[in-house]
Please model this.
Amino acid sequence: NAGVTQTPKFRILKIGQSMTLQCTQDMNHNYMYWYRQDPGMGLKLIYYSVGAGITDKGEVPNGYNVSRSTTEDFPLRLELAAPSQTSVYFCASSETKTASSYEQYFGPGTRLTVT
Amino acid sequence: AQSVTQLDSHVSVSEGTPVLLRCNYSSSYSPSLFWYVQHPNKGLQLLLKYTSAATLVKGINGFEAEFKKSETSFHLTKPSAHMSDAAEYFCVVGGKGGYQKVTFGTGTKLQVIP
Model:
């Protein structure tokens, strides 16, 4: 049982390049999330999904796009990378059997640098 | 609306002494509260959670937290710090929301001195 996996672990991008951060979970969770973590700022929600085919914006969606074609996968796309997108990105998932559980399972993160 | 405040950005303790990481929350509803731990260059791992059952919650690795509604607090404690406890700790509040919205605190870095 791998849980939540993310690839790549590290990436350096030049300004204006694009890339996709991959996220896969094998727990059959309906809810999936993308966060970015900046020093001293905690985690900020970028996008989330409540099930295959359904996505919505979080707190900081500008410059990012997502899709959710399957329950397992929730890729995050960066178009026209900017230095402000230098961050550590975490994917997470949670189940929905109880509305108040909210426990999220996190992947190991992708450390992205844009120069 | 909900928010969470971690009162200390850094805490330093000696090995074998008690740990106290402070967290205050604000929520319009009966909240769910969590503590997560993040070791260097790792993802977040759940330490413990409160979801309106017992107010004293026990977690992994000897940590526990007490929900105090009158003080809107959910402080994390451990009787005796171990070197392996050195990490960043996040207090998280969850409220009502169609996507299980949670709000993260800004984190407390725990340093354990040998």
